[in-house]
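Suppose a classmate hands you a notebook page containing two proteins, each written out with its sequence and a corresponding row of structure tokens. How would you begin to make sense of it? This section walks through that situation. The first entry is reproduced here exactly as it would appear on such a page.
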Amino acid sequence: MKKLFKYLAGLLLVVVLIASAFFVHVWYFKPYDINLFFGKTALQFALKSPETLSSIRVLERFGIEGHNAELDDASLASGDEAMAFAKEVHKTLLSYQDEDLDATDKMSKDVMLSLLNTVVEGERFRFHNYPVNQFFGVQNGFPSFMESTHQIENKGDAEDYVSRLSKVGIKFDQVLEGLRHREGLGILPPQFVVTKVLEEMNGFVNTPAKENILFQALAKKMDEAELEEGDQNEIAALAKSAIENTVYPAYQRLIDYFVKLDNKVSENHGVWSLPDGDAFYALALKFFTTTDYSPDYIHNVGLQEVDRIQTEILNILVSEGWDVSDGFTQSIENMAINPRFYYPDNDEGRDQILDDYKTMLVDIERQMSSHFHDFPEAEVDVQRIPAFKEKTAPGAYYQRPAMDGSRPGVFYANLYDIKATPKYSMKTLAYHEGTPGHHYQLAIQQELEDMPFFRKMVPFTAYSEGWALYAERVAYEMGMLPDPYDNIGRLQAELFRAVRLVVDTGIHAKRWNRERAINYMLANTGMAESDVVSEIERYFVLPGQATAYKVGMTKILELRAKAERELGDKYDIRDFHSAVLNNGSVPLNILEQLVNQYIEKTKST
């Protein structure tokens, strides 16, 4: 028996040594198999970002939770390391020869290269951004992350929450380091950004600690986790102290910096005003659209689409008995001021909006089988954008579900201005953010099997936003918008994306000022002024992103028309949708390859 135990122990040691050697080789050297390389790269990237790890929740199932007490490193040194890492990954990826890869691995290589090529090419523009801005800056991103992503199931999770609060000072000082570096390079934000983030941050620090979203979210999470009352009181006291003694002083240092910066900025220019700004914008368009379209081409397509969609809307208004003789702007305003289209401007009205959004999503889920084969396991919820940031937040956004199923996907709706939520626009927004839009596409992507992990997470804006805009049209084709006014809401949403092509390129390539862009969008969309101002200011701080929606939708429609034309009786829209969705988010040129493969395969059967 002793000999047997010695033999088994020796065998186990050999196995461990072999496994260790294999791990060391894979981790520190080029893996022989490209899928090992993909896995290693995704893991190495994720391990550098504890906030990402908390968001995707893949390590918790193995009892690994230390990252939940940490925040991302925002220092310049960390950025240098990330760039060096990206360049090394890019070099290694290129060393895998195409002829040695099967079709699936070749596609994964091309997907990763599409991202890395832009990162490497854009190294000189690394600081051409505004880390503190009214939409997705660190000052509102941190409390949003803690409220929506940091999960609490036990006392240890709550202690991790407080740990993160205690490290805000370090992170914000790292951000300040980067802001001062950008200032030295001549990269300053538009003036309105300074004004709005100061207003936001002052409101944040002037809120008593116990009323702050950071404290309120923690208290709610601990209560829902049913922690012992004594533990809740103890941790709440620590959190209050951390907010008052660490969080608020960190915000105050940012405030002090922006007060001084306010005296140095007075204009609201697009990125053309930054060093080598035209080249930066061209690269931004390439990154977000995954095309080589020029600003002029995108601008002109936008103008043409604005005319087409406005004509369709006017035709519906005429059929409903409206006088449109004064043109689009006046006609859409006449319709929009009708009180029949709005909820009461009170808490009850806003609660009803959320309930109605949920009902809309349930209704369309019951009809999905007519146009789709698949349905994801992850559920979707509808919540209001937190009050502390809704004034400057977009009209809606979506947060993907946790990969371990512990958190659903969430469609966040902005209810700050009740006039920005007309009833006729709600179905289209629900379908865009929920099903069959973002939630449906991203949940399917996360649940794909036999797919490199990075492809379950990678975002290509033209694909994902193009799909969500396309989904609005599919919902109409499914019969989910029988009311003509709901169809006007859908067309307005598409018009909004066409206008984006015009104003984004107008701001950053044609040097439009803020007021000209706002006036153009007001005159051509019929949107509430609060939404228009918010949108235009978003385009200033995120150049190029707004063009991806219409570009992506147009490509999907082009590919669908091609499939219908070439397949004839063999065409099934459900098969087309599977071909588009079941490889996750990809650049538009790769999407075209996938649809072509689906067409040829269907022809041969």
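The notebook's second entry, a different protein, reads as follows.
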Amino acid sequence: MRHQAIRRMAGLAIIVLSCLSAVAQDCSRPALRGSFLQPALGDRWTLKQWRDEFHYMRDAGLDQMVIQWTADSKEKTTIYPSGVAGYAQNTEHDVVDRALDAADASGAQVYLGLQINDDWWTKYLTDKPWLKNEAKVANVLADDLWKRYRHHGSLTGWYLGFEVDNVESTPADWDNLVAFYRTVGNHLHKLTPGKPIVISPFFNTKADLSPTQWQTMWEYVLKRSPIDVLALQDGVGVAHATKAELPEWFSAVRNAIQNSRPHMQFWVDTETFTLDSEPRPIRAIVNDMCAVRPYVSSYLSFSFNHYLSPQQVNPLYYQTYLDYLASGKIEHMRPTAPADLTSVALDSETIRLTWTASTDNFGVVGCNILRDGRRVASLRDGTTNFLDSQLNPGTTYTYQVRAFDAAGNESALSNATTATTPEPHLYPTNIALDKPYTATMPASPSYPDTGGVELTDGILGSTDFADPAWQGRATTKIYSFTIDLGAVQVIKEVRSHWLQDKPPAIFLPKQVSCSVSDDNVNFTAVGTVNKPSPGDDNLSWWYTLTDLTGINGRYVQLQVKPGSNAGWTFIDEIEVRQ
């Protein structure tokens, strides 16, 4: 699976190396200049919040915003009142107009993304007719946007949202990409002379093409394509690369630009988020920017608006970043250690922790929970208690807590505490074995439900997502499974088995809810399992509702809420026991 499972839904941002008038700083140090914005976030903002956002950006030296997309050509939706035939607005407000109005008042610049389309990740560069049609769609959208919003002085340029990666491709594929870029790029340059076109490809150090091979590809493509800015995603936030690996990849792309289209600009898209969709520490962001400073003139990022703005995350991230801009240094004071940590087992699967909060000169933004020496959860809500659920019965666990601030400074560990979960009641008979079931959403053809029997065949997969026992779904929408037990049965336990593998964007569900029915029409809720805290490892995990009393039914339904704003859920088995 490609990096797109994370980034297709994630916002991006523009960052530039510059001497900023808003704050005193040394021009040799990297600093953000702008931010990509996902339309859904902007749609939630009031007019005041739009104005405030550009105020926060200006005070931090940012004067650019990129709206990541304005249309979805698969769903036939737009984020503005479009005049394109067959398209309907799916936002409450005209996000494009609100962004441009606020930018006009602030003196900022806005780049408009054209369309996204989920089919890009399966069609990719190999489907020439599909790409040709998408190029036509892009041009129609650009005409519509320009007609409606050309009076805004802040409309600065365009962004093409199809993200190209370093999977294996052929010269014929490159020609298909060139044809797309030429059709759209030439049209945009004729429609809006002088307004630059931005693309933002990405790489995964574990994917097919090496830096040298990717350099060859981009030399070929860029030499033939009217693209003005290449903003390369650094991939550190989604674990596709480390800071140490960035110079080799950025050097390769810089060489490709110099050898093929030396007048175009080369920027970086620095990732400001973690795999858990949380803000990265300011020190990590700055270090990544410094690693690519010899190669780029500007910085793209995902995203000030989503992960640094005080309107979205803890304001301490914003304050710490402003302190960096003013001083040129990342503050280094460690928080004090959390104290008085205690633990108690509540049942065979749950342990409750409580502790005394730590303090910090700027302020604590969160705590990491360590179980048996490994981080299993991060809390960012200021609480000093934690329920560790879905644990193994009859097991002793040792816990410690470590606080952290927005800069990335960590406290010493708290005292250690241990607790033991009691032995469970055993329910030996799986009455769902080999029973039929239905799903409201089919599995992906790449990770299918082979034969329609995988969820009740008793076969568990390994922790390799390619294991055929697993079936996968790439969605943010709620879906469900319904098992027919054949007759009304007494139900004591319901559980489902899920995979976590964060680098390829496979996440545990946020929530799995169970209900039962005698007639497959009227369902009664049984209970809900919330996402546990297994840490970041590649692993499989049971979601279990146990010791049920008074529960009877023929049909058992599990409703699944995916665990990320973008990514996959993988399941291999559902059991109903008595």
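A careful reader of the second entry would note: Residues 35 and 462 are 40 Å apart (CA to CA).
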